[in-house]
Backbone:
């Protein structure tokens, strides 16, 4: 298949491309992050021959794609995903996630592409939700401008899917961890422990509870579920594990894997930062019913991620 | 009170301004619709002395408001509301309703204004919903780009309300009718009957069922409910009546009020146009529980509107 991946040099994008290429697909990648780190995430992929890469902004998608016949499916992963940045640059998420997604949808509509996979997030529903949290029947309740932008993008995808017959799989990720991650709690812990192996500062009170899923299991979900489900127009799937760990438990695994025994200090409060959601437990029965099955447990995912990031 | 009304020259905006001025409030109005019809909607208001009018785009709200101290409350009614146009100009609603609302929210945040009233619509939930339809527990399911843009705006308002302590009343209107309406089914019928009093073309099969609420009852709701409710941060209220009429019944009232007996022809199909929702029945218990009560029945609202538009 010919597959367009936006945000292909990001954490999940780079892992997805590696998998797609290993399966013999042809990949067109778009990413505007031209940092050394982003380039390195793609350089490690073998075989890269079947990938055509554009280090460009998705705002230019029409131009970029004008020399290509239409792809069979679009993975739209390009997004601003820095929740903390969204509280200082108030236009950031709207530009990247709302207007950017609209640009991609317009390209899809005009090119008559019929399949779209979108990376959403569990934060669209906010924190005042039943747990585990199902995909449906819960109001959008964004607690950050990042979350608002993802809600908006989901809504535009739903409308385009229905109006223009674009089968659209919306995946709401919980906490994804693993190779190439360049942000997030494990990345943060390793960074801190390299500076000082005797002490680890934990944001919040350490009792925030989340499910950590390895990126390889996310990639297997977003590639297999669009093949295994016959959705009418648009459907939403939570992706996570059915087990949850506190941040302190996570710190224990990280330190154990690194052979360290630091003292913990806590910044206090029930959340790590403004906009953090202390308890995230996703109901994943819908994804599991498609036949998809994560391979790594929460603990295995955390330990493997520590090894991958520590390399 | 000092009140900012965006979209003040529109159908609901002009009725709202008339009421606010009659109550002795000071109104700052912004509207970019400089058509004769828009100006006429405001010119009829007496006393207009307490209103300062800007015929400008809300995109320039910072500039416009720079010479004013902050208003006590903002009524953000400015919006693209032409569903049919949203299927030909795909960027129209996003620019006007999403980016425009974000501009207004940014002005509110920076000015530390603490109260916002927003005019949303029942179409955010789409058509596959329980009837009557409550405000909560139903996924956003927009069937048009117009609906998607209103979903997106609602999500941004929710995020801003929570992040910056802006009490925000989101009102979802059903079919609002009455003085100054310049679009919609009654307007359309009168227009057609003036051309040919012997025949009336009805879009769809005439069995579309909706609740028609008079704009005076909408104005009383959106002015009284923000005074009578102590919401925490953001709350949503449906506005409509607890009775519903088919389009053919509505046509009967219109014709009767005009003293005409035309033959009806139907364009057929279960909806009037792409994006029309055939059955709209809003659950309005939440609004009624605040003490607000509509004065006109569906039939009275329709008959009064015919008289108002026919003047």
Residues:
């Amino acid at each position: 298949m010919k597959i367009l991946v936006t945000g292909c040099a990001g954490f999940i994008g780079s892992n997805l491309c590696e998998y797609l290429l290993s399966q013999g697909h042809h990949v067109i990648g778009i990413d505007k992050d031209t940092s050394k780190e982003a380039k390195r995430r793609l350089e490690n992929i073998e075989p890269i021959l079947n990938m055509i890469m554009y280090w460009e902004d998705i705002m230019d998608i029409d131009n970029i794609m004008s020399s290509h016949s239409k792809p069979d499916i679009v993975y739209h992963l390009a997004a601003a995903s820095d929740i903390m940045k969204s509280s200082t640059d108030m236009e950031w998420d709207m530009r990247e996630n709302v207007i950017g997604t609209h640009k991609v949808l317009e390209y899809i509509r005009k090119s008559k592409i019929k399949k779209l996979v979108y990376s959403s997030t569990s934060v669209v529903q906010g924190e005042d939700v039943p747990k585990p949290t199902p995909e449906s029947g819960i109001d959008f309740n964004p607690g950050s401008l990042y979350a608002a932008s993802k809600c908006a993008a989901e809504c535009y995808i739903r409308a385009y899917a229905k109006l223009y017959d674009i089968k659209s799989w919306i995946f709401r990720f919980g906490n994804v961890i693993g190779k190439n991650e360049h942000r997030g709690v494990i990345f943060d812990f390793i960074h801190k422990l390299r500076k000082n192996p005797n002490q680890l500062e934990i944001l919040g009170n350490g009792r925030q509870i989340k499910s950590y899923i390895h990126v390889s299991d996310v990639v297997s979900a977003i590639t297999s579920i669009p093949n295994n489900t016959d959705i009418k127009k648009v459907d939403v799937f939570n992706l996570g594990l059915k087990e949850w760990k506190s941040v302190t438990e996570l710190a224990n695994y990280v330190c154990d894997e690194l052979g360290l025994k630091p003292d913990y200090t806590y910044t206090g409060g029930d959340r790590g930062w403004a906009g953090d959601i202390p308890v995230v437990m996703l109901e994943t029965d819908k994804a599991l019913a498609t036949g998809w099955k994560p391979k790594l447990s929460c603990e295995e995912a955390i330990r493997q991620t520590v090894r991958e990031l520590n390399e």
About this structure: The domain at 183-211+242-283+295-310 of chain B is CATH 3.90.25.10 (UDP-galactose 4-epimerase; domain 1). Chain B is about 40% helix and 20% strand.
